Amino acid sequence: MTRSKRAGSEHRTGFRLRAFVVFLVATTFLIMLVTGLVLFVAPHGRIARWNDWRLFGLALDPWTQIHVLASFLFVAAIPVHLFFNWKPFTKYLADRWHEHLRPRLELVSGVAVALLLAILAGVGLPPAAQLFAWQEEIKASWQRAGAAEPPFGHAEDLPLPELARRTGLDLEATLAFLEKRGFRVERMDTSLLDAARALGTTPVTLFAELPKRPASPPSLAERYGPGSGVGRKTVVQIAGELGVPLEEALRRLASVGFAASPEAPLRSLAEGAGAESLDLVRAIAGER
Predict the structure, then answer these.
(1) Partners of 55 in the beta sheet?
(2) How many C-beta atoms surround the C-beta of residue 72 within 10 A?
(3) pTM as predicted
(4) What number is the average pLDDT over the span 89-101?
(5) Residue 162 pLDDT level (bands cut at 50, 70, 90)
(6) Sign of torsion, CA 59 62 65 67?
(7) Is 226 helix (H, G, I), strand (E, B) or coil?
(8) Burial 208-219 (b: 16+ CB within 10 A, else e)
(9) What is the pLDDT of residues 212-230, one digit of tens each?
(10) How many Å is the Cα radius of gyration of the chain?
(11) At 212, is the secondary structure helix, strand, or coil?
(12) How far is CA 18 from the centre of its chain?
């Protein structure tokens, strides 16, 4: 073996940063692909956390964190990858440019399609809108399959005293119930999620078992406020939840300036009129 071959063999046995970056880019891309697909079909956050939804043992938050971390590593590694491959990259571009003398139709059309789809997604127009409508249908299917709706967004994260105040739990009886089950509440900032995980159950299951006190029903603001996901619900869904006949709901909306169809999501109606989804709920309920 010649000296140059021996030197090349010795060089290949050491740590090669260029190869490391290549494998890092490829691996993080695959992780982004898998986690992106999981997040695409996962239930909405309030549903996932209330039911302690998991896939392959991981809850929604860890899946999100893995996706964000992989995306960060991918973006950070790309400039390093280009640095190591700058000459081949620029040579390839130069060869293609001199070969064709002008941008090819494929280049122009590819860039144009990507930009057009990004714009259509931003303004909510087809065909991009169909993808998100399909995603919403998949996410909503978790509820049809039995996943329960929380009383309001992030209810599982509230301290038990605040949760009791907003939902009608009997706090004193709740603390006694949890201690009897084997979980003693040492701090008043303990949440329902903390208690559920300590007892090996889910927030929705534990909440159903906790003792309640007679209480007035929650206000519309508490029931349909921020984080409740009301914007994704349609007029017919809200009318059914409020016990208002659909024809009466549409009439009430029209009387305050909202011309709506039964299947129209509240968010789109509200955004078109510069209002909030809760305003439409109040109109349907007859409070406006």
Answers:
(1) 58
(2) 11
(3) 0.63
(4) 65
(5) very high
(6) negative
(7) coil
(8) eebeeeeeeeee
(9) 876 566 778 778 877 778 8
(10) 27
(11) strand
(12) 35
